[in-house]
Amino acid sequence: xxxxxxxxxxxxxxxxxxxxxxxxxLTLEDVGLYVALLLMAGFYLVPIESGxxxxxxxxxxxxxxxxxxxxxxxxxxxxxxxxAIDALVRGMGNSLLYAxxxxxxxxxxxxxxxxxxxxxxxxVSYKAPLLAIIISGIFIxxxxxLVPLTQFWSQWVQxxxxxxxxxxxxxxxxxAGIIELVITHVAYGIxxxxxxxxxxxxxxxxxxxxxxxxxxxxxxxxxxxxVLPLSGPMFAVVLIYQFTQIWNDLLxxxxxxxxxxxxxxxxxxxxxxxxxxxxGQDFALRMAGAFFAALPTLAVYIFFGDEFAExxxx
Amino acid sequence: MATLELDSVTKVFQDGNDEIRAVxxxxxxxxxxxxxxxxxxxGCGKSTMLRMIAGLxxxxxxxxxxxxxxxxxxxxxxxxIAMVFQxxxxxxxxxxxxxxxxxxxxxxxxxxxxxxxxxxxxGELLGISNLLDRKPTELSGGQQQRVALGRAIVRDPExxxxxxxxxxxxxxxxxxxxxxxxxxxxxxxxxTVYVTHDQTEAMTMGDRIxxxxxxxxxxxxTPLECYHEPANQxxxxxxxxxxxxxxxxxxxxxxxRGEAFEYPIDAETEADLxxxxxxxxxxxxxxxxxxxxxxxxxxxxxxxxxxEPMGDENTVYLQFAAAAGEDxxxxxxxxxxxxxxxxxxxxVARIPEEAIHLFDRATGEALHNRxxxxxxxxxxxx
Amino acid sequence: MLDFYRRLYxxxxxxxxxEETARPDGGVVSDGSVTDxxxxxxxxxxxxxxxxxxxxxxxxxxxxxFWLPPFLLMALFVYGxxxxxxxxxxxxxxxxxxxxxxxxxxxxxxxxxLADPGFIDAAVxxxxxxxxxxxxxxxxxxxxxxxxxRGIRFENTFRTIYLLPMSLSFVVTAQFWLWMYNFNNGIVNxxxxxxxxxxxSWLGNQGIVLWAIIFALMWQFSGYAMVVYLAGxxxxxxxxxxxxxxxxxxxxxxxxxxxxxQLKGATISAAVVLMVFAMKAFDFLYSLVGGYRPPxxxxxxxxxxVREAYANxxxxxxxxxxxxxxxxxxxxxxxYLVYEYRRNNL
Lengths: 314, 382, 346
Known about the structure:
Order of helices and strands of chain A: HHHHHHHHHHHHHHHH
Shape of chain B: elongated
Helix content of chain A: over 70%
Strand content of chain B: 25-35%
EC number (chain B): 7.5.2.13
Helix content of chain B: 25-40%
Oligomer: heterotrimer
CATH topology of the largest domain in chain A: MetI-like fold
Function (chain B): Part of the ABC transporter complex XacGHIJK involved in the uptake of xylose and arabinose. Responsible for energy coupling to the transport system.
Radius of gyration of chain A: 24 Å
Strand content of chain A: under 5%
Subunit structure (chain B): The complex is composed of two ATP-binding proteins (XacJ and XacK), two transmembrane proteins (XacH and XacI) and a solute-binding protein (XacG).
Number of helices of chain B: 10
InterPro entries (chain B): AAA+_ATPase, ABC_transporter-like_ATP-bd, ABC_transporter-like_CS, ABC_transpr_MalK-like, ABC_transpr_MalK/UgpC-like, Mo/tungstate-bd_C_term_dom, NA-bd_OB-fold, OB_MalK-like
Keywords (chain B): ATP-binding, Cell membrane, Membrane, Nucleotide-binding, Sugar transport, Translocase, Transport
Number of helices of chain A: 16
């Protein structure tokens, strides 16, 4: 039960796949199939591969070699990576500073919300509209809340003033933007996290929950001792999905932190302007920067691909 | 441990604009320490009734009281009731020991060592001491069943509720657990409500059985009373395998006239009918005797249609010779396994008057049941 | 005395239960038992909570700590902000003023939008982006899903590759495509050069740039469509394939006539999510140029809204554009949510 998963990969499907192939038994079709698969793989990989080889080329190599060809030994340099890392490493730190707490908090809150709206016994005719209201929140274009959001943080809450004792310790007051980002991402992350956990909790055995209630456990204890320990697989999915979303988001950082020169600027904000300041565009630098900034999400994707697929498919 | 009282308990589900009365005005009084089996066809409301006692469903009207306290509004977690589910509902991430101690930890303030001691004792009682550190997924179905039982027993609750706990076991294990459960309940003396659709479990396990149909209480009596003195045609039909034979008959001048046969009855039987003339005639297959020759008016010439040998006995499908081809002409009888009858034989079926049941055709209510004076004792001695 | 209250309590609880069954729509009607029994024994809070439990279900009160605070936080940030935004769009808030002046509300900003050719262009572009991107992405995703579902070897590897761009930030993929579309050295121009076409200024030509962007976005999200379709395909029983084979249908015909019609649900949910992504394409366009002004011919409502508000400080006008964008989103997701609700999927 604890490793029950929504099936997105096809361990069970290979049997049916083989079956289907046996019915046809066409090798020519198989060849065509694999050619098509490889062509498509090329289509998805070429922009990434091209970016990677470009990032390690010297200026002349960029002009002289094909954009997808690796540089010769003469045209190889890590200089752009060095520059990109220098420019972005501060942003990486800042991004981690809000992405990690926001991810953890929104996953925890999503789990609690989904639990409260799925497991306890109260009328569906009241639960369903509440859920609909929450889940609609996934689809809101953020533009529709930006101006009030700016008003809210700059005029109503004014963290910069309230946290003056923190700035007195030598922390630049731009870091108020990081706190704003955490709270904002948590608030807008609740709908998707709730939806993801809900699909999982709906599949928990009802009799098991009832049994725990009859055993004398309150709702809080049922969550603590039964539901939470069984939520592990879904936490993996939600944490990975939410981390990728928050790390990759530009719009909120643009509005709440505003300038790439700020000491609190997240990596996406710096990257967006990287390599344009000089005359013309420095593509090698841009590519190096893009890869460096994408490292955390790429790592997450490569190590937890299945959970990621599950998250996006929900 | 306490008496459990149901007073015109009703549950209405809303389905769009339709009202579904899952349980309809059921009243029952269950004594302290009694083993009650609730039985009925699927959808009769028996599980809903159990879930209302557990507090897992709200009660639309009526009251449920435990030890003279109305518990309608008491939450399940505060009712001191333990339930064994059909799926066992074990906590998959906890070991057997943790599964069993969970309830005590949540519902009592007992210190840990005492809880562990109680768990160990219960484990011994059920013969699962060696499994205490395993996870539920590492157990067989029968072992999981025992753990589920142990989880309920260790709490020493006021009431045990069991929702078809044996239905996921194979036939052999089920028979074994049936006797074991009875023995346990006897030893522990905890009031138990046991829901099943299996009439063997109903007949063998309960002190009394509650028979439900369409949410309504049909009868609440000892198993043998329900079997031999059914309150109505539904109960008569529901209990017994193969089930009772029924024929529509009309009473005319002391004779029951059906499509296939005529059956004279004596004055004593007729007096029970209170003037009702549209009746249903019932006779259990095992009460029909097969003989060679017709001797009196209760002997009928029949043709053997099908014989189903079961080993210890045969189920014989007979057709009244006088009425071959009519709709209502098949009579099922059971004979012992050594009686030799073959298809197309002509045999005489004797339907003894002391074994017949008569029901009001309009209401299904039993007007006359078989007489028991001599043979109920014989049955009880078995 | 106590006994009297107990009886009163039962009488009241029974009446409210009858009410509950008599009202199949489950609408909220003020409950007489709350006010009538104000003199009864349990404290007002217990009475209120038991009345609430009876109305909403036995665990209602106990469950509120779990969902109510997050619900309120989310409602404030999402729905509260949208209403606030609507209010701001009715003011003439602009420039460096600290707060809008709510005393004089009118629809001027909406009138201004209709008269603004830039807004009309952006709205048209948004619409084109929405439709073309969604259709193209679904089509490619479906083809990928069918290819991957044919019992191939290395299925996981292929799936991982196809979904890879989805894990990247818009900011990152924008860099890649900027390079792909580069006039002199970009791969796209190299490839069409092989066929003697081009070079084309993909991002500089007003008539082409939007389609170039749609293509890049399609590259990023078709893996998502594939995952959704794959789940849909796996839900179709093998017998359907076999039955079609036995009936003598060609592979193509089998998919067209038997399989694809069964993917309606997957198509709808993928389409909704893709349209929402398309409306959020701001990040991509911003990163393409490193600023608020997207290439000529590729301005969409999402970029125009942010530009008006944060570059030009036309806060109220930006808010009005945001409301239009929100209305577009609502027209897509509203029917979708109703559809899901009817199928009991919520």
